[in-house]
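Hey,
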Amino acid sequence: MPAAKLRPDSPVSAPPVAPSAAAPRALQSAAASASVARLADELAIPAPSPVHQLQAELAQLTLTPEADAEQLYPGWFRLAFPLASSFMLWVAILWGASLLV
């Protein structure tokens, strides 16, 4: 299999370019003109974006107001019902087994 030949205009075969003196100054001025990152406080207004809007719309679809107000069965019932039903099933099993003997 022949080795791949580099084209003269490819970036791999191009000779390295020495950085000019203007490049560091351009980077410094670009960094100085960029806004400095800061922490958000209570008074900061969130930036509107399509991602935030979509997230807010999806949150409205997933969180229903009824889910927060849902009442659970009382604790005594959640404990007593499985125990009582299990006891009744064991009684039925043992009664049925006693008839077979």
